[in-house]
Amino acid sequence: MGQFPTDAMQAFVKELKAGTVSKETAKKALLDKRTFEGRALYEMNCRPCHGDSTGGDGPMADGFRLRPINFTDNGTIETIVEGYTFWRITNGGRGLPQEATPWDSAMPVWKLDIPEEYRFKIMLGEYDLAQKTARQPEKAEGKEGEKK
User: Fold this and answer.
1) Is 114 in a helix, a strand, or coil?
2) Of 14, 34, 75, 94, whose CB is crowded by the most CB atoms within 10 A?
3) Cα-atom radius of gyration of the chain, to the nearest Å?
4) What is the CATH classification number for the domain harbouring 55?
5) What is the pLDDT of residue 95?
6) pLDDT tens for residues 79-103?
7) Does residue 2 form part of some domain?
8) For residue 141, which phi and psi values (nearest 5 degrees)?
């Protein structure tokens, strides 16, 4: 997501001035707005450990026994659904069982310090900064192997 305002935001303003805003244009503009806000919230709360570009190389990273996760690595956030990413931001990584490696970490619990709406925006910012997309949930199978 490069410039601000984004193309979607500019399209929204153009349609707004014309008096008709499509649902799709409004949705894209709102997502871009929340992603930009999430990048700023990431900068304030996550960058010290995860780094400017989410590479796990922030200025505090060397102080941990387990380094912060590198979100640009193909084996991390793009392998999980957004719900788990949000849960992880909310609940942190302390106290997970040994089997949870590489997901066990010193990551703090943020649910007491960062409101839910901001945690959601941080998640959007993380995916954007890492240039990754979340894994889409698999469809449940119905009768005779058909997708629901």
Assistant:
1) coil
2) 34
3) 18
4) 1.10.760
5) 76
6) 999 999 999 999 988 777 777 776 6
7) no
8) -90, 140
DSSP code string of 39-102: HHHHHHHTHHHH-TTSSS--TTGGGSSSPPP-TTSTTSGGGS-HHHHHHHHHH-STT--GGGTT
**Which residue(s) pair with 141 in the sheet?**
147
Of the CA atoms within 13 Å of residue 89, those in its CB half-sphere come to 28
Residue 102's pLDDT is what?
A: 64
State the 10-residue block means of pLDDT for the chain, 148 residues long: 78 86 89 94 97 96 90 92 92 79 80 97 96 88 64
The continuous run of DSSP H or E covering 28 comes out as helix 23-45
Note the pTM of the prediction, 2 decimals.
0.81
- The token duo for 30 is 């709102």
Beta bridge partners of 147: 141
CB-based contact 148:95 (threshold 8 Å): no
